[in-house]
Each structure stands twice: as structure tokens, then as C-alpha cells.
Amino acid sequence: MNLPGAAAPAAPAEAEAGSSLWHDAWLRLRKNRLAVFGLWSLALVTLACVAGPWFSPYGYEEQQLDLGASGPGLRHWLGTDTLGRDLLVRLLTGGRVSLAVGLAATFVALTIGVVYGAVAGFVGGKRDAFLMRVVDIMYSLPFAIFVILLMVMSEEIAKRFNFGPSWRLVLLFVAIGAVEWLTMARIVRSQVMAVKKMEFIEAARSLGYGRRRIIFRHILPNILGPVIVYTTLTIPAVMLLEAFLSFLGLGVQPPMSSWGVLIKDGAEKMEEFPWLLIFPAGIFSLTLFSLNFLGDGLRDALDVRSSKD
Fold it and tell me: Per the CATH hierarchy, to which homologous superfamily does domain 75-301 belong?
């Protein structure tokens, strides 16, 4: 009961709504114009590659030898190659292969690197030292030669067991992913070594949780930020590697195409038919720039030290 003349008690302040790390990261990412440009450009390129060939009246293998290499026009918007095949359809179909290689090989590298680095960082001691010395040894190997050897071995396996084109692509994914996990393992290891000293990990240990549960249920969800950022930066590196292998004739084999194959063909005929190089190189460069812009934006957005606006 309030006394006469006494001030009324103040109403309790309304609790401020909480905000998650991912919500704050999205707000910061939206303010980064280059990252948003990269996100939309990547979405449009992916949509065009996935859906574009379905709406085209031409097939990526369809040849018009009487037409030959012709420049861009109303019938063929990006022109045709020396066999009279529509360049736009081959560009979009090749984009499917290049994007699939980038995503699948990155997934392989992500799986190996995250598991390897998490185990090494959590167990520590001599086992950690041994596991990381293996990584150092693999780093010392000539990278390009190592990948080429893996691809040659994959080709021999495909020939011996009579694998089709789809299986050759799977071998390509595995060969590239098998050498792209080293940096991911180091990044995950350093993050795990920092997180495993925190109080909630000590609490999980005191409750008797096993190593597997602590690593996969408690540690890995708390280091997703750096993993996501490096993943977006690994995809363009993998796509560049696939283009390099295709340029050497060790990647995607005809009649299938990829951006690397198209760039290789265009480079051989760039003086006579420049559009065969300009369009594949342009769309490939746009995709790589978009991925790098998005990766840089995610790195800044997921930085927990960034101030809230």
C-alpha cells in the first residue's frame, strides 16, 4: 500500500531482446556492398547454369559443321565454336561441372580437414605433434605434381574398371579434395586448442562425456565461423585447380565441358575467334571474384570483435 504523497514505484524496464551471433553477422554482411554483390552474382550464375540449358533449343554436344565458328548473333547469343556448337549452352553446362567440382571437392577437403584438425587439436601431446608433422610433410611435396600424379592414377583406375564420365568426375573430386584439406586442418586445430580450454568444455568433461561427443557436439559448433569463411575461400581455389588440370588435359574430358576446358580451347584460337576465350574467361573471373568478395565479407561479419551497430 502506497503512503499518501509517496511516488509510485517505477514500472520494471522491458527486457531488451537478445540477438544471436548469426543475426548480427547477417546485419553486418548486408552492409558490405562487395559481399552482397558477390552473393547475388554467385546466385545468378548458379541459377543460370542449373536452369539455363533446359530452356535452350541447342544441346551442348549438338554440332553444326556447316556453320562452324561464328560470332555472337541473334540465333547464338555468344557465338559458336569451330564445330558449330552453341557457346552459351556449353558455357552454362560447363558451369555445372566447374561449380560441382568446386563444391564437391571442397566438401571432401572440409570433411577430412575438420575431422583431422579437431582430433589433433583435442588430443594434444605427442599424437598431435605426429599428426601435424604428417601435414608438414605433405605441405613440402610439390603441390601441382602431387595433384597431377593423383589425376593420372585416377585415370588409370577409370580405364581399368571401365568407369564412365560420371565416375571420372567423382575421382576428380576425390583427387582435388585429397590435397586441399591441409590448411583447413591447421585452422581447425588452432581453433579447437583455444576452445577446449573454456569452462563449458571442462563442464562437459566433468559430466563424463566422451571425446567424440565433446568434439562433435560441443567444440565444432563453436568454431563454425572460421570454417565457413575458409570454405568460401577454398571453393575458388578448387575451381582454379580444376581449370588448371583441364587446361593440361587432365581434368574433364570431351565431349563434356567445364570452364577450364572452354578457356583452354579459347586460348588456342583466341587470335581468330576471340569470343571463344572472352566469354568463358569473363564468367569464370566473375564467379571467382564473387566467391572471394563473399568470403571476405563473411570473415568481417563473423568477427566477434566487431562492434555492434
Answer: MetI-like (1.10.3720.10)
